[in-house]
Specification:
With 121 residues, the protein is mainly α. It is built from 5 helices and 2 strands; from the N terminus they run ααββααα. The protein has a two-stranded antiparallel sheet with strand order 1-2. The protein is globular, with a radius of gyration of 20 Å.
């Protein structure tokens, strides 16, 4: 095989590997621990959350369909990493948000996001 043909084949092979891949649907974290953390951090005081009991509140948006939303907080692409960022420090993303920083640990935020983005309960 000549060098030019080899170069073309190599380029085509590399380009084939660069095709858009769908985002991973595998969530990290423990959803059951996330459900418990959502209750411990009193998230239900402001949000309707599937699988959690509490008052019927309308302060924050309902989180019943969070996995179906395109954006978090109106501007962040909806994925687990961004949801963890939002849960941990919402003011760093939107300084005017009413959502308070609740002192949620990285682990708890990961678990909470696994519950919120997982199959609805």
């Amino acid at each position: 095989m000549n060098a030019r043909l080899s170069s073309c084949l190599l380029t085509l092979a590399l380009l084939a590997g660069c095709q858009d891949q769908p985002p991973s649907t595998t969530l990290q974290g423990d959803p059951e621990r996330g459900r418990i953390a959502l209750a411990q951090h009193a998230c239900r005081a402001c949000h309707m959350i599937p699988g959690l009991t509490g008052p019927e509140t309308h302060v924050g948006r309902p989180l019943t369909d969070l996995a179906e939303q395109r954006f978090i907080a109106g501007s962040l692409p909806n994925n687990q990493a961004n949801l963890v960022r939002w849960i941990r420090d919402p003011q760093s993303i939107d300084p005017h948000t009413a959502m308070p920083a609740m002192g949620v640990s990285e682990r708890d935020a990961l678990d909470m996001s696994a519950w919120l983005l997982g199959p609805q309960k």
